[in-house]
From TrEMBL:
<protein>
    <submittedName>
        <fullName>Aminotransferase</fullName>
    </submittedName>
</protein>
<feature type="domain" description="Aminotransferase class I/classII large">
    <location>
        <begin position="21"/>
        <end position="371"/>
    </location>
</feature>
<dbReference type="InterPro" id="IPR004839">
    <property type="entry name" value="Aminotransferase_I/II_large"/>
</dbReference>
<dbReference type="InterPro" id="IPR015421">
    <property type="entry name" value="PyrdxlP-dep_Trfase_major"/>
</dbReference>
<dbReference type="Pfam" id="PF00155">
    <property type="entry name" value="Aminotran_1_2"/>
</dbReference>
<dbReference type="GO" id="GO:0030170">
    <property type="term" value="F:pyridoxal phosphate binding"/>
</dbReference>
<keyword id="KW-0663">Pyridoxal phosphate</keyword>
<dbReference type="InterPro" id="IPR051326">
    <property type="entry name" value="Kynurenine-oxoglutarate_AT"/>
</dbReference>
<keyword id="KW-0808">Transferase</keyword>
<keyword id="KW-0032">Aminotransferase</keyword>
<dbReference type="InterPro" id="IPR015422">
    <property type="entry name" value="PyrdxlP-dep_Trfase_small"/>
</dbReference>
<dbReference type="GO" id="GO:0016212">
    <property type="term" value="F:kynurenine-oxoglutarate transaminase activity"/>
</dbReference>
<dbReference type="InterPro" id="IPR015424">
    <property type="entry name" value="PyrdxlP-dep_Trfase"/>
</dbReference>
<dbReference type="GO" id="GO:0005737">
    <property type="term" value="C:cytoplasm"/>
</dbReference>
Length: 379
Protein backbone atom coordinates (compact mmCIF):
# COMPACT_ATOMS: atom_id res chain seq x y z
CA UNK A 1 0.00 0.00 0.00
CA UNK A 2 1.50 3.32 -1.10
CA UNK A 3 0.69 6.28 1.14
CA UNK A 4 2.65 8.95 -0.74
CA UNK A 5 4.54 11.91 0.69
CA UNK A 6 2.81 14.00 3.35
CA UNK A 7 1.90 17.57 2.53
CA UNK A 8 4.09 18.70 5.43
CA UNK A 9 7.20 17.08 3.98
CA UNK A 10 6.31 18.37 0.51
CA UNK A 11 5.81 22.00 1.52
CA UNK A 12 8.75 22.04 3.95
CA UNK A 13 10.94 20.64 1.18
CA UNK A 14 9.82 23.44 -1.14
CA UNK A 15 10.48 25.98 1.61
CA UNK A 16 14.05 24.70 1.97
CA UNK A 17 14.53 24.64 -1.79
CA UNK A 18 13.41 28.23 -2.27
CA UNK A 19 14.67 29.70 1.01
CA UNK A 20 11.09 30.50 1.97
CA UNK A 21 9.66 31.42 5.37
CA UNK A 22 7.98 28.25 6.67
CA UNK A 23 4.56 28.88 8.18
CA UNK A 24 3.51 25.45 7.01
CA UNK A 25 4.79 22.58 9.15
CA UNK A 26 3.67 22.91 12.75
CA UNK A 27 6.78 23.09 14.87
CA UNK A 28 7.63 25.96 17.26
CA UNK A 29 10.90 27.85 17.27
CA UNK A 30 10.53 29.00 20.88
CA UNK A 31 9.18 27.86 24.21
CA UNK A 32 10.87 24.63 25.28
CA UNK A 33 12.09 24.39 28.90
CA UNK A 34 15.85 24.25 29.43
CA UNK A 35 15.45 22.08 32.56
CA UNK A 36 13.89 19.36 30.43
CA UNK A 37 16.77 19.42 27.95
CA UNK A 38 19.23 19.17 30.83
CA UNK A 39 17.37 16.23 32.34
CA UNK A 40 17.53 14.37 29.03
CA UNK A 41 21.24 15.08 28.59
CA UNK A 42 21.99 13.88 32.11
CA UNK A 43 19.99 10.69 31.54
CA UNK A 44 22.04 9.94 28.42
CA UNK A 45 25.42 10.58 29.99
CA UNK A 46 24.65 8.64 33.15
CA UNK A 47 23.82 5.49 31.23
CA UNK A 48 20.01 5.46 31.03
CA UNK A 49 20.22 3.94 27.54
CA UNK A 50 19.01 0.32 27.57
CA UNK A 51 15.55 -1.09 26.94
CA UNK A 52 12.98 0.36 29.32
CA UNK A 53 9.72 -1.48 30.12
CA UNK A 54 7.46 -1.91 27.11
CA UNK A 55 4.67 0.20 28.65
CA UNK A 56 7.11 2.99 29.58
CA UNK A 57 9.24 4.01 32.54
CA UNK A 58 7.24 3.94 35.79
CA UNK A 59 8.28 7.51 36.59
CA UNK A 60 6.87 8.83 33.31
CA UNK A 61 3.63 6.85 33.57
CA UNK A 62 3.20 8.24 37.07
CA UNK A 63 4.02 11.75 35.84
CA UNK A 64 1.36 11.52 33.10
CA UNK A 65 -1.29 10.38 35.58
CA UNK A 66 -0.32 13.12 38.04
CA UNK A 67 -0.29 15.77 35.30
CA UNK A 68 -3.85 15.01 34.22
CA UNK A 69 -5.04 14.88 37.83
CA UNK A 70 -3.56 18.33 38.42
CA UNK A 71 -4.46 19.98 35.14
CA UNK A 72 -7.75 18.30 34.17
CA UNK A 73 -9.09 16.67 37.33
CA UNK A 74 -8.83 13.13 35.91
CA UNK A 75 -8.33 10.39 38.46
CA UNK A 76 -5.89 7.95 36.90
CA UNK A 77 -3.39 5.28 37.88
CA UNK A 78 -0.02 4.69 36.17
CA UNK A 79 -1.38 1.32 35.01
CA UNK A 80 -3.75 3.20 32.70
CA UNK A 81 -0.85 4.92 30.88
CA UNK A 82 1.19 3.50 27.99
CA UNK A 83 4.13 5.50 26.66
CA UNK A 84 4.49 5.50 22.87
CA UNK A 85 6.96 6.81 20.31
CA UNK A 86 4.92 9.88 19.51
CA UNK A 87 1.20 10.45 19.29
CA UNK A 88 1.09 9.02 15.76
CA UNK A 89 2.25 5.66 17.11
CA UNK A 90 -0.35 5.99 19.87
CA UNK A 91 -2.98 6.54 17.18
CA UNK A 92 -1.78 3.55 15.16
CA UNK A 93 -1.78 1.24 18.17
CA UNK A 94 -5.21 2.45 19.28
CA UNK A 95 -6.81 2.07 15.86
CA UNK A 96 -5.32 -1.38 15.32
CA UNK A 97 -6.45 -2.42 18.81
CA UNK A 98 -10.12 -1.76 18.16
CA UNK A 99 -10.67 -2.05 14.38
CA UNK A 100 -9.76 -4.52 11.67
CA UNK A 101 -10.90 -5.91 8.31
CA UNK A 102 -14.58 -5.31 7.68
CA UNK A 103 -14.85 -2.65 10.38
CA UNK A 104 -15.50 1.07 10.03
CA UNK A 105 -14.06 4.05 11.91
CA UNK A 106 -15.78 7.44 11.89
CA UNK A 107 -13.46 10.37 11.11
CA UNK A 108 -14.24 14.08 10.99
CA UNK A 109 -13.19 16.02 7.89
CA UNK A 110 -10.96 17.93 7.55
CA UNK A 111 -8.73 15.49 9.41
CA UNK A 112 -5.06 15.21 10.30
CA UNK A 113 -3.59 13.40 7.32
CA UNK A 114 -2.43 10.28 9.21
CA UNK A 115 -5.89 9.19 10.34
CA UNK A 116 -7.32 7.65 7.19
CA UNK A 117 -4.08 5.85 6.17
CA UNK A 118 -3.81 4.35 9.65
CA UNK A 119 -7.42 3.16 9.55
CA UNK A 120 -6.78 1.56 6.16
CA UNK A 121 -3.53 -0.02 7.41
CA UNK A 122 -5.63 -1.72 10.08
CA UNK A 123 -7.82 -3.14 7.31
CA UNK A 124 -10.78 -0.97 8.28
CA UNK A 125 -12.67 1.67 6.30
CA UNK A 126 -12.84 5.40 7.13
CA UNK A 127 -16.35 6.87 7.21
CA UNK A 128 -16.42 10.65 6.99
CA UNK A 129 -18.47 13.26 8.82
CA UNK A 130 -17.94 16.84 7.66
CA UNK A 131 -17.09 19.61 10.12
CA UNK A 132 -18.86 22.82 9.23
CA UNK A 133 -17.03 26.18 9.13
CA UNK A 134 -16.54 28.70 10.56
CA UNK A 135 -16.50 27.00 13.99
CA UNK A 136 -15.92 23.46 12.65
CA UNK A 137 -18.63 21.49 14.45
CA UNK A 138 -20.58 18.36 13.47
CA UNK A 139 -24.23 17.90 14.41
CA UNK A 140 -25.63 14.99 16.37
CA UNK A 141 -27.67 14.00 13.32
CA UNK A 142 -24.63 13.87 11.04
CA UNK A 143 -22.70 11.73 13.51
CA UNK A 144 -25.60 9.33 14.07
CA UNK A 145 -26.19 9.00 10.32
CA UNK A 146 -22.61 7.77 9.79
CA UNK A 147 -22.96 4.82 12.17
CA UNK A 148 -23.58 1.35 10.71
CA UNK A 149 -23.42 -2.17 12.17
CA UNK A 150 -19.75 -2.22 11.08
CA UNK A 151 -18.77 0.89 13.07
CA UNK A 152 -16.28 0.15 15.83
CA UNK A 153 -14.84 3.54 16.78
CA UNK A 154 -15.15 7.31 16.53
CA UNK A 155 -11.86 9.22 16.20
CA UNK A 156 -12.02 12.85 17.27
CA UNK A 157 -9.32 15.51 17.46
CA UNK A 158 -9.92 18.45 19.82
CA UNK A 159 -8.45 21.05 19.77
CA UNK A 160 -8.43 20.44 16.06
CA UNK A 161 -5.63 20.32 13.52
CA UNK A 162 -5.84 21.91 10.94
CA UNK A 163 -8.66 24.33 11.75
CA UNK A 164 -7.91 25.42 15.32
CA UNK A 165 -11.50 24.64 16.30
CA UNK A 166 -12.59 23.04 19.58
CA UNK A 167 -15.41 20.51 19.72
CA UNK A 168 -18.26 22.15 21.59
CA UNK A 169 -20.38 20.61 24.35
CA UNK A 170 -23.14 19.59 21.95
CA UNK A 171 -20.75 17.76 19.62
CA UNK A 172 -18.99 16.04 22.52
CA UNK A 173 -22.32 14.96 24.02
CA UNK A 174 -23.43 13.56 20.66
CA UNK A 175 -20.25 11.52 20.33
CA UNK A 176 -20.67 10.08 23.84
CA UNK A 177 -24.35 9.29 23.27
CA UNK A 178 -23.66 7.51 19.99
CA UNK A 179 -20.72 5.59 21.44
CA UNK A 180 -22.76 4.33 24.36
CA UNK A 181 -25.80 3.52 22.27
CA UNK A 182 -23.78 1.51 19.73
CA UNK A 183 -21.00 0.19 22.00
CA UNK A 184 -18.23 2.11 20.23
CA UNK A 185 -14.74 3.09 21.35
CA UNK A 186 -13.86 6.79 21.30
CA UNK A 187 -10.28 7.53 20.25
CA UNK A 188 -9.71 11.08 21.43
CA UNK A 189 -6.63 12.80 20.00
CA UNK A 190 -6.04 15.58 22.52
CA UNK A 191 -2.44 16.46 21.73
CA UNK A 192 -3.25 20.19 21.55
CA UNK A 193 -4.93 20.19 24.98
CA UNK A 194 -2.52 22.78 26.43
CA UNK A 195 -2.26 24.93 23.29
CA UNK A 196 -5.55 26.79 23.62
CA UNK A 197 -5.69 30.37 22.42
CA UNK A 198 -9.37 31.02 23.07
CA UNK A 199 -11.50 31.21 26.20
CA UNK A 200 -13.01 27.73 25.93
CA UNK A 201 -11.64 25.19 28.44
CA UNK A 202 -10.32 21.82 27.34
CA UNK A 203 -12.88 19.07 27.92
CA UNK A 204 -11.46 15.56 27.70
CA UNK A 205 -13.64 12.76 26.37
CA UNK A 206 -11.98 10.62 29.04
CA UNK A 207 -13.84 12.69 31.64
CA UNK A 208 -17.16 12.28 29.81
CA UNK A 209 -16.96 8.58 28.89
CA UNK A 210 -14.07 7.01 30.83
CA UNK A 211 -15.26 3.46 30.24
CA UNK A 212 -14.86 3.65 26.45
CA UNK A 213 -12.37 6.42 25.68
CA UNK A 214 -8.73 6.15 24.61
CA UNK A 215 -7.10 9.51 25.27
CA UNK A 216 -3.95 10.37 23.32
CA UNK A 217 -1.41 12.95 24.46
CA UNK A 218 1.91 14.31 23.24
CA UNK A 219 4.95 15.57 25.10
CA UNK A 220 6.06 17.19 21.84
CA UNK A 221 3.07 19.53 21.92
CA UNK A 222 2.99 20.08 25.70
CA UNK A 223 6.71 20.91 25.93
CA UNK A 224 7.30 22.42 22.45
CA UNK A 225 9.70 19.56 21.62
CA UNK A 226 8.01 18.03 18.60
CA UNK A 227 11.10 16.17 17.36
CA UNK A 228 11.32 14.03 20.49
CA UNK A 229 8.29 11.96 19.46
CA UNK A 230 7.15 10.96 22.95
CA UNK A 231 3.43 10.36 23.34
CA UNK A 232 1.04 8.24 25.34
CA UNK A 233 -2.27 6.48 25.56
CA UNK A 234 -4.50 6.74 28.62
CA UNK A 235 -7.48 4.43 29.01
CA UNK A 236 -9.26 2.21 31.50
CA UNK A 237 -7.42 -1.03 32.20
CA UNK A 238 -8.99 -3.34 29.62
CA UNK A 239 -8.66 -0.84 26.78
CA UNK A 240 -5.11 0.02 27.82
CA UNK A 241 -4.20 -3.66 27.68
CA UNK A 242 -5.60 -3.95 24.14
CA UNK A 243 -3.48 -1.02 23.02
CA UNK A 244 -0.39 -2.37 24.79
CA UNK A 245 -0.65 -5.66 22.91
CA UNK A 246 -0.38 -3.74 19.61
CA UNK A 247 2.19 -1.23 20.82
CA UNK A 248 4.68 -3.96 21.73
CA UNK A 249 4.90 -4.99 18.06
CA UNK A 250 5.07 -1.47 16.62
CA UNK A 251 7.88 0.34 18.40
CA UNK A 252 7.97 -1.80 21.58
CA UNK A 253 9.37 1.11 23.56
CA UNK A 254 10.57 4.72 23.49
CA UNK A 255 14.08 6.09 24.26
CA UNK A 256 14.45 6.14 28.06
CA UNK A 257 16.45 9.41 28.32
CA UNK A 258 13.60 11.21 26.62
CA UNK A 259 11.11 9.56 28.96
CA UNK A 260 13.11 10.77 31.96
CA UNK A 261 13.21 14.28 30.54
CA UNK A 262 9.48 14.34 29.77
CA UNK A 263 8.70 13.25 33.33
CA UNK A 264 10.67 16.30 34.46
CA UNK A 265 8.66 18.50 32.09
CA UNK A 266 5.29 17.24 33.25
CA UNK A 267 6.23 18.17 36.81
CA UNK A 268 6.85 21.81 35.86
CA UNK A 269 4.59 24.21 37.74
CA UNK A 270 1.26 25.25 36.31
CA UNK A 271 2.64 28.75 35.85
CA UNK A 272 5.02 27.47 33.16
CA UNK A 273 2.17 25.94 31.16
CA UNK A 274 -0.01 29.00 31.61
CA UNK A 275 2.81 31.24 30.39
CA UNK A 276 3.28 29.04 27.34
CA UNK A 277 -0.40 29.30 26.50
CA UNK A 278 -0.21 33.08 26.81
CA UNK A 279 2.88 33.19 24.57
CA UNK A 280 1.14 31.23 21.82
CA UNK A 281 -1.92 33.48 22.08
CA UNK A 282 0.31 36.53 21.68
CA UNK A 283 1.93 34.97 18.61
CA UNK A 284 -1.47 34.20 17.09
CA UNK A 285 -2.64 37.76 17.64
CA UNK A 286 0.55 39.21 16.17
CA UNK A 287 0.23 37.22 12.94
CA UNK A 288 -3.52 37.80 12.73
CA UNK A 289 -3.15 41.56 13.10
CA UNK A 290 -0.50 41.80 10.39
CA UNK A 291 -2.50 39.68 7.97
CA UNK A 292 -5.78 41.45 8.64
CA UNK A 293 -4.07 44.75 7.95
CA UNK A 294 -2.90 43.27 4.65
CA UNK A 295 -6.43 42.39 3.58
CA UNK A 296 -6.61 38.76 4.64
CA UNK A 297 -9.86 37.25 5.93
CA UNK A 298 -9.15 34.87 8.81
CA UNK A 299 -11.35 32.30 10.52
CA UNK A 300 -11.65 32.21 14.32
CA UNK A 301 -9.30 29.83 16.11
CA UNK A 302 -9.37 28.55 19.69
CA UNK A 303 -6.66 25.90 19.85
CA UNK A 304 -3.50 24.47 18.27
CA UNK A 305 -0.70 26.46 16.59
CA UNK A 306 -2.79 27.27 13.53
CA UNK A 307 -4.75 30.03 11.83
CA UNK A 308 -7.01 29.41 8.84
CA UNK A 309 -7.14 32.01 6.07
CA UNK A 310 -10.01 32.21 3.58
CA UNK A 311 -8.58 32.78 0.10
CA UNK A 312 -11.90 33.61 -1.56
CA UNK A 313 -12.91 36.09 1.13
CA UNK A 314 -9.43 37.62 0.80
CA UNK A 315 -9.97 38.30 -2.88
CA UNK A 316 -7.96 35.33 -4.20
CA UNK A 317 -9.70 33.14 -6.77
CA UNK A 318 -7.09 30.37 -6.71
CA UNK A 319 -7.58 27.02 -5.04
CA UNK A 320 -5.60 26.33 -1.89
CA UNK A 321 -2.94 24.03 -3.34
CA UNK A 322 -2.45 26.26 -6.39
CA UNK A 323 -1.95 29.26 -4.12
CA UNK A 324 0.45 27.44 -1.77
CA UNK A 325 2.61 26.15 -4.63
CA UNK A 326 2.81 29.64 -6.14
CA UNK A 327 3.47 31.43 -2.84
CA UNK A 328 6.39 29.22 -1.81
CA UNK A 329 8.22 29.19 -5.15
CA UNK A 330 9.79 32.64 -4.86
CA UNK A 331 13.54 33.19 -4.60
CA UNK A 332 13.37 36.27 -2.36
CA UNK A 333 9.91 36.42 -0.81
CA UNK A 334 8.53 32.87 -0.74
CA UNK A 335 6.35 31.68 2.13
CA UNK A 336 5.09 28.16 2.86
CA UNK A 337 1.53 27.41 3.97
CA UNK A 338 -0.52 24.21 4.03
CA UNK A 339 -3.61 23.75 1.82
CA UNK A 340 -6.71 22.50 3.64
CA UNK A 341 -7.35 20.13 0.75
CA UNK A 342 -4.56 17.90 2.10
CA UNK A 343 -6.82 17.18 5.09
CA UNK A 344 -9.94 16.41 3.03
CA UNK A 345 -10.88 12.87 1.98
CA UNK A 346 -11.24 13.71 -1.71
CA UNK A 347 -8.24 16.07 -1.88
CA UNK A 348 -10.24 18.61 -3.90
CA UNK A 349 -8.98 22.17 -3.68
CA UNK A 350 -10.66 24.43 -1.13
CA UNK A 351 -10.52 28.18 -0.42
CA UNK A 352 -8.67 27.69 2.87
CA UNK A 353 -4.99 27.59 3.87
CA UNK A 354 -3.43 26.75 7.24
CA UNK A 355 -0.74 28.94 8.79
CA UNK A 356 1.45 28.04 11.78
CA UNK A 357 1.97 30.89 14.25
CA UNK A 358 4.27 29.02 16.69
CA UNK A 359 7.19 31.14 15.50
CA UNK A 360 9.39 33.93 16.79
CA UNK A 361 8.29 37.52 16.23
CA UNK A 362 10.78 38.06 13.41
CA UNK A 363 9.58 34.99 11.51
CA UNK A 364 5.93 35.97 11.99
CA UNK A 365 6.54 39.53 10.80
CA UNK A 366 8.46 38.45 7.72
CA UNK A 367 5.98 35.66 6.99
CA UNK A 368 3.08 38.12 7.17
CA UNK A 369 4.92 40.57 4.92
CA UNK A 370 5.46 37.87 2.32
CA UNK A 371 1.88 36.59 2.56
CA UNK A 372 0.62 40.12 2.05
CA UNK A 373 2.84 40.39 -1.04
CA UNK A 374 1.55 37.03 -2.29
CA UNK A 375 -2.04 38.15 -1.80
CA UNK A 376 -1.41 41.35 -3.75
CA UNK A 377 0.37 39.42 -6.50
CA UNK A 378 -2.10 36.52 -6.84
CA UNK A 379 -5.45 38.24 -6.17
Amino acid sequence: MQAGTTIFEHMSGLARQHGAINLGQGFPDFGWPDAVLAAGATAITTGYNQYPPMRGLPELRTAVADFYQRRQGLTLSPEQVIITSGATEALAASIMAVAGPGDEVILFAPAYDAYAPLVRRAGATPVWVALQPPDWQASAGAIAAAITPATRAILINTPHNPTGGIAGPAMLAAIVDCARQHDLVIISDEVWEAVRTGAAPHISLLALAPERTIKIGSAGKLLALTGWKVGWVVAEAALAEQVAQVHQFLTFTTPPPLQVAVATGLALPDAWYDAGRARFTTARDRLAAALTAGGWALLPTQGSYFLMADLAASGIALGDRTFCEAAVARADDGVAAIPLSAFQPDGAETPFIRLCFAKSDGVLDEGARRLNLARARLA
